[in-house]
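Researcher: Go.
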Amino acid sequence: MTSAVSYERQSHRRLIGSKVEIVKYQNFWCLEVGLKDILHYQTHFKAHDSDIILASLPKSSTTWLKSLIFTIVNRLNPNHQPLNKNSLLLSHNLHELVYFLENGFYGGYPMLPTPLQLQQLAPNSPVLLSTHLPYASFPESIKTSSSCKIVYIA
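Model: Structure:
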């Protein structure tokens, strides 16, 4: 796999502005600095049947959609209602509650909680996850070996 990645990196590179380099990998463009995290995510992530994955393009109201999904999933839990002063939406950053798979799990954001910590924050709720990868680049555990839910916004 390494040789294919290095080949694609050499043959499909673009510079945006003066410092940001993007790479075409599996037929989509991603930031070169994030490619290692994407490879780790694709290789190691194991989806659970109760996971809910929000997949969307960058800059397509993902943060707003994360808030909506968190509220819908937790609508019956009085502790997580938006008007409750103890709501997690008021005490935590939304990106802590809906985990970004490419950067959160395997990237350089150690200040975000791990999925286990997310489960401890809302123990009776499914784990909410998000990604900007296209469906074709999802890990096999999402596509074939689990019945997790995918909300794909294109």
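Model: Residues 139 and 150 are 13 Å apart (CA to CA).
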